[in-house]
Amino acid sequence: MLLTTLNTIGPICIMTLIGYVMGRRVEGLHIETLGTIVIMVATPALIFSTLTSLHVTPQMLSLMAGSAVVCVCIATVLSLGLLFLSGMSIRTFLPSLVLPNSGNMGLPLVLLAFGPSGLKLGISYFFVIALIQHTIGYAIASGSFRVGFLLRQPLIYAVAAVLIVVATGVEVPTTLASTTEILGGMMIPAMLIMLGNSLATLRIADLKPAVITAVGRLIIGVISALAVIKLFDLTGEFAGTVFLMATMPSAIVTYVYAQRFRPDAGPIAGAVVVSTLLTFACLPVLLWFALSLTQ
Fold first, then answer.
1. Which stretches in the chain have pLDDT values below 70?
2. How far apart are the first and last CA of the chain?
3. Fewer CB within 10 Å: N-end or C-end of the chain?
4. How many other C-beta atoms can be found within 10 angstroms of the C-beta atom of residue 260?
């Protein structure tokens, strides 16, 4: 178990460290461009390639997607209670408390911990979180919901294509399968490099709300994951994947949208940094517990 934990955490730490060093040392690094490529190209490619090549069943897809939705609902209720008790702004901190960084950290974890089958489950969970981040998360930050923005996201069409393939059983052309596999392969290392770059460049403006948000995100993630595992009677890699994906730190995209639309983006940057550092510190325990669920 210890060796498995080290082998899983090691590559994640190394790739994140590479991004951190580049963020501190490399001048002219256009991380926004890399982020755009990841969101617009690599992410939908990975979703399509993984969920069509690994023969996802409708039952498995609906179970993991349903688990993600219920986790977010539970996290929202708990987050509203925490923000009410602490007196912190709901519009500012709610997305950071509710939405986990299931892409940058969650997907590499489940891939290294459970292999291709874990990635398949993780992608089935992640695409729901990504949709919520780019719809509800965007709406909270901007103060309005724009259907046009949603329709411009390739992620929507990648998911739709997956549903068509899964429902009909149609064979994906070899050229399309190979192309999406190659493009999707850059998503996970690129996301970890972006994560490290964020740790190098984001600053903590106010420590108290950052700590409250970070601790709250971790505890809320654990509670929501355990509740869903119990509710859906999940076992094995299903349970381990849901636990890891739900307990990840605050999503970086919450800061990206806050920086674009909100005057108080500084505290959110601090929340993302502290939340990520806290999760890294707790990663051995989180991974150990997730692996124990599969025994």
1. 1-5, 147, 149, 205, 262-265
2. 11
3. C
4. 11
Instruction: Give which of 105, 69, 119, 25 is closest to 275, Cα–Cα.
Output: 105
User: CA 258 to CA 250: how far, in whole Å?
Assistant: 13
In whole angstroms, give the CA distance from residue 180 to residue 186.
Answer: 10
Strand partners of residue 250: 100
CATH of 2-11+29-293, one of 3.90.1150.10, 3.40.50.1100, 1.20.1530.20, 1.10.10.60: 1.20.1530.20
pLDDT in tens, 90-112: 888 899 999 999 888 899 999 98
Please give the structure tokens belonging to residue 27. 């001048």
Is residue 18 within 8 A of residue 84, CB to CB? The reply is no
DSSP 250: B
Q: Which residues of 199-232 are buried (b: 16+ CB within 10 A; e: fewer)?
A: bbebebeeeebbbbbbebbbebbbbbbbbbbeeb
Q: How many other CB atoms are there within 10 angstroms of residue 56's CB atom?
A: 19
What are the domain boundaries of the chain? 2-11+29-293
